[in-house]
Amino acid sequence: MSSNIEDIFKQKFEKFEEQPSADLFNRIKAKQRKNKIVIWWTAAVVGLLVVAGSLFLIPQKNTIESPITQTETIDKTIAPATETVSPSEENAISIEEINTAEKRVASPSVERQKQQLKEVPNYTSKTVSQNKTEKPPLNTKIVDPNLANKFNEILAQKGTKNPDKATIYIKDKMYDVGQRPKITPKNIDSKEGEESLPEGEPKININTPNINSTGGDFAEGANDPDDEDLPGNAHKANKWSIQIAGSPGYATRFLTGDNQIIDKRNATENNKLSYYAEALATYSISEKWNAGLGISYQNRNEGFAMQTQTVHKETIISFDTFIVYQEPLPPRQVIVPDTNYQISTTVEDFEHQNHYKIVNIPLFAERVFYLDNNKWTIFTQAGITTTIWQKSEGQIIEGDNPKLLELSSLNKNKIGINSITLGFGVGYKVSDKVNVVFYPKANYLLNSLYDDNYALKQQEFGLFSSFGIRYKF
Amino acid sequence: MKTNNANSSTSLNELNENEIIEGCVRKDVHYQKLLYEQFAPKMMGVSLRYCNSRMEAEDVLQDAFIKVFNKIKTFENRGSLEGWIRKIVVFTALKSNDKRIQKFEPGNLDNVQETAFDARAISNLETEELMNILKQLPEGYQTVFNLYAIEGYSHKEIGEMLGISEVTSRTQFSRAKQNLIKLLAKYGIVRR
Questions:
Q1: Which residues of B touch A2 (CB under 8 A)?
Q2: Is B144 helix (H, G, I), strand (E, B) or coil?
Q3: At residue B5, does pLDDT exceed 90?
């Protein structure tokens, strides 16, 4: 016998066992699953933020605000032969990122110019590197006489005091000398610019802004390629948009698990028209990328139809009459009741509608493609959603027919579940601020409607055309 | 046939511990359940000593087993599996109630006096009765008494675990013992 109190306690407690609650193991597994979902959710959000952040921070290579890496200097001999300008290294026009711009514009005219540059030796250029990088200077010859004329014309119109240092900015088929151009889509579409060209002047195969009549457009200080109206620069001024859209659509569910129950459910359930609505706020994090957050509501409707069989048992009582001879008594008549049963079955249709209502918070990244005419935009979207409210109403077959399960009994612990959403749509610009969007979306609910006690897993899928408007602030 | 049944029964009950660990590393629910069934009652006993209620003890056990399942690949067979799980349960219990750590009062052993008691009388008590008496101690005393007397940690280790000094741990333990004897005397189990 130990004499230390601690030894006595140790001996007693070392063997001490207590049975925990019977469902504790299931609770452990459930919490593990929940933790896993939280981890994936957090990782997805962090991933999205990292991607969004990187896109925001990484300078866009193809925009005019990129650091100048190479600058070409063109001799003034690019002017037509009628203008005699002595070639001079000092008397030169700088063309900023012409190659980059050409790549971006990628129009046949520019390609043609590039081809001409290689073919025609009449107009020579000498290239120097403006920055001090060790990259070899890019040798480019501008040979299109119209383009050369235009450059000179711009120089003259601008009254550039020091044309030697004039810089030509080329961006999305527009160029200017001296300052960064302010060119609105209206200018681009307008024919005024073309009309203002000197008569008889062959048109340059580049959309030319209204350089003659809209000198104000190029006024110093007023010009910035970051202007919102440039096709790629909408994000600079108008970072926020809201989108309200909705539509009827197709939604269904995927069942996995017990095949017998799945067959019965497939036989009794049929898809009905479903509905979707969303209100989203999008933030332009770069020229081509948006991030968005909002709220969406989805109502999947489902028809349920089965036949119920009722067995009716009808009792029929008939009476049989017998003559009983029992001597010495005289014969007598005995009436005996006879009980029969008639079994009949009636089949009735049992129908109702099931409704699966879900409110989600979508978080998504969106890639925007601007089409050349600046009216149409293509959107692609990928995101994740978290469910904040879910309600199912109606009845489905639980197990063996005709046992029914109330869907409302599955409406527990469904907050925080998540889904993935993909969208591919198109927008049409009806005004500077309003786009009409047609934005078909698919979403897939990752978790099951059932909990683990059921032999089935049910995952929701929706496909909605999603018509609406997007308003740019 | 009987022999086969007996064998399969034996292999299930006395399943190789390594096999269970490997199954748990693969996250096989079947093996996780075997591990749980093997250790849950014992660990519930441990958890109950550190917690104020059965519900709290089950919460601790739940979190501890999640850690066990997630971290079992780091168990390198250096000690016993039971010891490793017990350690996780104890640490989880301590972490679940950080308030206890605030209740340790630094002190010295000067005022602590050893008291004689009748060991046989205590030995005759049921574990549940001892648990009830232990639960009447202040929480700080309970924790140090549990860690030192029953889990077998040294005062230095306890100091590091609870963020207190080694001397404080010793003091707490001595006072816990004194209080236990007082309580036992109060209930007429020992004479002072």
A1: 119
A2: helix
A3: no
Mutation target among A3, A13, A14, A26 for the B interface, most CBs of B within 10 A: A13
Cβ-Cβ contacts under 8 Å, A7 against chain B: 149
A29 at the B interface (CB within 8 A)?
yes
Chain A residue with minimal CA distance to B47? Answer: A18
Q: Which residue of A has its CA nearest to B28?
A: A29
Task: Check if the beta carbon of residue A113 is closer than 8 Å to that of residue A144.
Answer: yes
Total-model pTM: 0.40
Would you say the C-alpha torsion A21, A26, A28, A34 has a positive or negative sign?
Answer: negative
More confident residue, A421 or A400: A421
Contacts of B117 in chain A (CB under 8 A): 5
Sheet with strand A167-171: strands edge to edge: A71-75, A92-96, A167-171, A174-177
Distance between CA atoms of residues A366 and A344, nearest Å: 63
pLDDT over 70 (residue B157): yes
Share of chain A above pLDDT 70, in %: 60
Quote the ipTM score: 0.78
| CB contact at 8 A, A341 and A379 | no
CA angle B101, B106, B112 (to 5 degrees): 120
Sorting pLDDT into bands at 50, 70 and 90, what band is A287?
Answer: confident
d(CA A379, CA A365): 10
**Chain segment B175-189, per-residue pLDDT in tens:** 888 888 888 877 777
Among B38, B51, B61, B153, most A C-beta atoms within 10 A, so best to mutate, is B61
User: What percent of chain A is predicted at pLDDT more than 90?
Assistant: 13
Min distance B165 CA to chain A CA atoms (Å): 21
Mean pLDDT of chain B: 79
Query: What do you get for the CA distance between the two ends of chain A, in Å?
Result: 85
Q: Which stretches within chain B are classed as H helix?
A: 2-13, 17-25, 29-50, 54-71, 81-96, 99-102, 119-123, 127-135, 139-145, 155-162, 166-186
Count of CA atoms in the C-beta half-sphere (13 A) of A413: 9
CA distances from B17 to B21, B80, B83, B88 (A): 6, 10, 13, 18
Given an 8 Å threshold on Cβ–Cβ distance, is A31 in contact with B36? no
Please tell me what DSSP assigns to residue A455. S
Q: How many interchain CB pairs under 8 A, A with B? A: 86
Q: ∠ CA(A399), CA(A405), CA(A407), 5° rounding? A: 135
The whole-angstrom separation of Cα B64 and Cα A35 is 14
Q: What is the mean pLDDT of chain A?
A: 69
* Residue A177 identity (one-letter amino acid): V
Nearest Cα neighbor of A248 from A464, A468, A461 is A464
User: Which residue has 């683990």 as its token pair?
Assistant: A452
Q: Are B100 and B143 in contact (CB under 8 A)?
A: yes
Residue among B66, B117, B148 minimizing CB distance to A28: B66
List pLDDT tens digits, range A366-403.
998 888 777 888 999 999 888 888 888 898 887 665 67
Phi and psi based region of residue A257 (left: phi greater than 0; alpha: psi -120 to 50; beta: remaining): left
Task: Please indicate whether, in this complex, the C-beta atoms of B66 and A35 are within 8 angstroms of each other.
Answer: yes
Instruction: Please check the confidence at residue A450 and state whether its pLDDT lies above 90.
Output: no
Convert the pLDDT of each residue in A232-282 to its tens digit: 444 445 689 999 999 999 998 888 888 878 888 888 899 899 999 999 999
